[in-house]
Amino acid sequence: MDVRQLVGGGWADRLLDVAFVVLALLAQVEIWVKPEAENQPLLVVLSLVWTLAPLARRQLPFAAPVASLVAAGAMTFVADEYLASVATSVVGLALVAGVLSAYNEPRVAAAGLVLVWGVVALVAAQDPHESFAGSLAAALVASACWVVGLGWYRRSAYAAALHERAERAERERETAARVAVAEERARIARELHDVVAHSVSVMVLQTSAVRRLLGEEQEREREALGDVERTGREALVEMRRLLGVLRAPEEGAELAPQPGLSELPSLVARTQAAGLPVVLRVEGEPGPLPLGVDLSAYRIVQEALTNTLKHAGPAHAEVAIRYRADAIDIEVADDGRGPLDSNGDGHGLVGMHERATLFGGELSAGARDGGGFVVRARLPIPVGE
Length: 385
What we know:
alpha+beta
């Protein structure tokens, strides 16, 4: 965010507009009430530029106040004496000095302050009634307003930096979340590849075994099974090639079956050995599950227990698996302090969400009543599988 956008907003900025308008009216009155005023039309124009040019400070932060100073200096050459009253001239120069420092970078503002001093010196030189003490007082007042404006600028710059930092952090968080989702999807794709590759391998082996058991008179059946076996082996070759695209360089190919819920006792035992007491409860009658659903259910439990080990501190965990006719419910709860980032944005939770969504399921995670953290998931079981 541009610093000037913060400087140029709020009640103080609007009050400054009002001050310049009032200053313009007072300057015009001073010109017209003095019968001895010379070159009144030109003085009116220069006075308007002097007092109203700073209103364009948001669009022209340096040029607008400089135009005001140039007009103020030119007025000393038009009339025999500087026509504005002491109060009006001092206030006007002070406001312009404040604009220069509040709406410009410090180096540019410093150059503007030199111009303000130059106008004060010019007025002192042109006006025979101007005393050294009066000029010095005007310069000091203008300098004080310049310092106030500089503080305003720095405060606004700090606010702009905080705003930019917050926006950058939000963009980085969104980018990290997208990267995490992409990584989890690639990881899920690799695992599902292994599941399918293992299944195709079993099909090819069984087809080959059946083909060898056929009699000589079953030549047609033998050829058909040979075609199936050949097609399966070609599919395995292409799947291995696809795996080379999906798998990271440090990962090796793997055709062994991926884990499922039947291996939860082993997972619980390993988790307990790592220092987290875990109770496993299974409700309902376990039945055959689609391999992808079985794998995702296992991974959800595994990731939830891993998060508990990392973040919960000294705690106890409970894993509940509930088999239903059309779905499987998973609940992993602990009584620890919960993860530091408990809003559901952690990368582990991203992976669990992706696995549940892949199979049309749902997952929720958050603080548990009474303390701790709980992860709940439901994975539908396709009808007929």
